[in-house]
């Protein structure tokens, strides 16, 4: 596999996260031993956002999926890591110039650059993770050669919010994000809905800080780096007595974890995209649960299809029903959560799938 960075002719790295959600729009790909006529000459490529391929989150998950597909196809993945927003368009152009047949772009921040490149290069297929590639907001993807991979994480975040409200002893939970993009705020809004549902069902009064459902706005760092700004955002919420914290935005959870460890009291954290207990064991003791996306398998299926000459531009939307989103086990917190909570979560999941409990999001079926 060829991995490049912008500065040294463009590079990144990844480790295999064993507990990335094992489902997407259909069953996991089977190794048939046949890759189709297109595979030997097929060049898959990938561009990260500024979080990098080792973010323990959605860049890493997408990288793992693309790598698995390339290995199965018997070809080499070229992966370009972006260090800043200004790298996105040049990195995609670099891959176009290298003759890539499929370019996977990771994240909503690359949407404009992906659309521009796709329109200019109709003979190259694109897959974009976490964005609809709908720059004109008409409800349709802006180019026929782009396949969006989308995830209705509000459903899974709803479950995490319910669990957070059940676990909280202070009656205050909090969240903050990198930037107020729909694919970030969907976690925060679903989380708040889950807390509200617990309050209504159990007669509790758990408060959510960091997100205002009415205003659809909240606390954001302005980026997706693990830095002092992210730590300050986490600290501000900790100072308001939160005992469950949901940071949404790749590496910013690392800053939140540092603030929690300095707090001197028990504060749980909720991960996003991947099961942080598995992908980053250094924070396992802090993890109440994680809100999961099936990014790895969804990406693997899309790359395999393209490599076999079967590219499909129809958007994939992950839900609880198709197991494209989910919630991780309580792991180390299993003995700390209220007795019977896992059963309540299971029942609530079934009710959401059945449509008996409605979770609002921009991806929810009408």
From TrEMBL:
Keyword annotations of the record: Cell membrane, Lipoprotein, Membrane, Signal
Position of the signal peptide: 1-23
SUPFAM superfamilies according to UniProt: Periplasmic binding protein-like I (SSF53822)
CDD domains cross-referenced by the UniProt entry: PBP1_PrnA-like (cd06354)
Organism for this UniProt entry: Agromyces neolithicus
UniProt protein name: BMP family ABC transporter substrate-binding protein
ABC transporter substrate-binding protein PnrA-like domain location: 45-328
Family designation: Belongs to the BMP lipoprotein family.
Main localization, broad class: membrane
């Amino acid at each position: 596999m060829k991995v490049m960075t912008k500065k040294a002719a463009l590079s990144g790295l990844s480790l295999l996260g064993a507990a990335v959600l094992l489902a997407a729009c259909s069953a996991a790909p089977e190794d048939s031993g046949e890759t189709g006529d297109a595979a030997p000459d097929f060049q898959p490529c990938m561009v990260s956002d500024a979080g990098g391929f080792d973010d323990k989150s959605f860049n890493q998950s997408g990288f793992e999926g693309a790598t698995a597909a390339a290995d199965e196809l018997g070809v080499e993945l070229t992966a370009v890591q972006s260090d800043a927003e200004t790298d996105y368009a040049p990195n995609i152009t670099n891959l176009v110039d290298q003759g890539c047949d499929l370019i996977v772009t990771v994240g909503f921040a690359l949407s404009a650059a992906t659309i521009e490149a796709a329109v200019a290069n109709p003979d190259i297929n694109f897959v974009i993770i976490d964005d609809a590639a709908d720059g004109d907001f008409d409800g349709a993807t802006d180019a026929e050669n782009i396949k969006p991979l989308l995830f209705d994480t509000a459903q899974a975040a709803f479950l995490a919010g319910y669990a957070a409200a059940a676990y909280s002893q202070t009656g205050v939970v909090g969240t903050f994000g990198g930037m107020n993009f729909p694919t970030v705020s969907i976690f925060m809004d679903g989380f708040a809905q889950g807390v509200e549902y617990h309050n209504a069902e159990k007669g509790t009064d758990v408060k959510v800080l960091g997100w205002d459902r009415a205003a659809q706005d909240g606390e954001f760092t302005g980026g997706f780096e693990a830095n002092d700004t992210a730590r300050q955002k986490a600290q501000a919420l900790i100072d308001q007595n939160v005992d469950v914290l949901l940071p949404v935005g790749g590496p910013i959870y690392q800053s939140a974890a540092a603030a929690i460890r300095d707090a001197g009291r028990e504060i749980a954290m909720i991960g996003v995209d991947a099961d942080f207990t598995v992908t980053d064991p250094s924070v396992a003791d802090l993890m109440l649960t994680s809100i999961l996306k099936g990014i790895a398998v969804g990406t693997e299926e899309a790359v395999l299809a393209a490599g076999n000459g079967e590219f499909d531009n129809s958007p994939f939307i992950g839900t609880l029903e198709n197991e494209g989103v989910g919630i991780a086990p309580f792991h180390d917190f299993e003995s700390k959560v209220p007795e019977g909570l896992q059963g309540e979560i299971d029942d609530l999941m079934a009710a959401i799938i059945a449509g008996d409990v409605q979770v609002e999001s921009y991806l929810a079926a009408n």
